[in-house]
Amino acid sequence: MTEGKIKINRAPVLTLWTAVVAERFGFDREEALSLGKAVAGLTAQSKGRRLGIFKPQPAEIREARKRKRGEEFWVELLGRSVPAVNTADGVRGVIGAKAIEPGGVKRYLESKFGDDFAAARSAMMTLAKGFKPEQLRREAFRLYEQFRPEIPEGVRGWGAKGELDLARIAEETST
After folding, report:
1. What is the DSSP letter of 148?
2. 3-state secondary structure string across 61-94
3. Is the pTM of this model over 0.90?
């Protein structure tokens, strides 16, 4: 990190921010990590399809239509409805038919943020705490758009790293 700036792509930033927001709403840390990864995964799928990188295969579509929702329910985070399931260990986000394990999400975030993980999480937590939960529900995605790393548009930006400026996150706290 150079003076509070982290070179990183958007997916881990969105994952961490969503997890912090979910914690602010009352989910425990492990539940929040799982839900954060689900939001980032759904967002990446949507963007990938829009850019023509991912295309649903006919077999995938047929399989998706056969699946039963059963015990799954939906959690609204950052303006996105996320499929979730209640497990013996708590609420977990779901991708496909599989619950997202928080341990893997934590390792993913630690590997992407490196030594800056604690500082980034702390900055985001301070920002989230600056809003009442109902206000944060309305503003969370807009806030993310304000501080997320800038990357090139379109396919050129897919997976590209940009600069996450922790000072910019702190500025949002004071607005």
Report:
1. S
2. HHHHHHCCCCCCEEEEECCEEEEEEEECCEEEEE
3. no
Query: Which of 134, 155, 111 lies closest to 16 in space, CA to CA?
Result: 111
For helices 133-147 and 117-129, angle between their N-to-C axes, nearest 10 degrees: 140
Residue range(s) defining the domain that contains residue 26 = 5-173
**Widest CA span in the chain:** 51
Q: How does DSSP assign 96-142, residue by residue?
A: TTEEPPHHHHHHHHHHHHGGGHHHHHHHHHHHHHTS-HHHHHHHHHH
Asked if residues 77 and 140 have their Cβ atoms less than 8 Å apart, the reply is: yes
Beta pairing partners, 50? none
Rounded Cα–Cα distance for residues 132 and 112 (Å): 29
Which amino acid, 142?
Answer: R
Assign 1 to helix, strand or coil.
coil
Domains held by the chain: number: 1
- What pLDDT, on the 0 to 100 scale, is given for residue 105? 97
Contact of 71 with 97, CB cutoff 8 Å:
no
Query: Per-residue pLDDT averaged across 121-139, rounded?
Result: 95
Q: Are 131 and 141 in contact (CB under 8 A)?
A: no
pLDDT digits (tens, 9 = 90+) for 1-13: 457 899 998 899 9
